[in-house]
Amino acid sequence: MISVKNNPIETRLTEVREELRDLKNFPDSKFVGIIKELGFRCELCARCCTKEFNDHVFLLDSDLEIIKQIDPYAVTPAPYYEFCDQNGRFYVSGYALKTKPDGSCIFLENKRCRIYESRPSICRVYPHMLHREADETGKVDWRQISGLNEHGSYHSELDDSTCEAIAQETKAYEETYLVQMIGFLEALEAHFRKNNLKHVQRTYDRKMREFLKGECKIEVFVYTEKGFEKHNLQPGTD
Fold this sequence. Notes:
Structural class: alpha+beta
Radius of gyration: 19 Å
């Protein structure tokens, strides 16, 4: 049995629960003020829809259901797998949208989204996602940050009702994301306990090096609200 003190899953679970608590306590008025001061307006450059600027589009469970109805082959295990057991099997908290060879989103055509009305939650709130970071005094708190000064225009005049709507939608997204992460960690902890597994960072690092060098395929178990789904990934898989 792995002690709580040395259990990275339990440690991360505690952290995420604290993040959720802090997020719920984050004043709506403060977030509205940040959004109003930022004054972001989209200029339709489509940079946010590329790996170069945004890495990947993570899907909530509700997003996954919609995307699979549109195109079941448009999803892939989200990158940056969180854990790896002693047998070299990886575990990740959800799916992401696939990208084209040029790094753009699979649904992007001529700088426009083919599924705009059904786009994932993170695309709807971007770039107003909340992020925990330290300020100039070292105090860690929730702050708005996401690819700033890389696209779009700033300091536009946004009315209060618009800022309040953005704040509510963004906070709801962040809460749902953290709840999904908690579900993943709880399910993983139960799976590891039942099957006498443990996270081994050395195994994670070795298998990932081999995979990135094209020397082996890997097994990735992706969490959804229905449980873990197994994928066998070949090197170069998006």
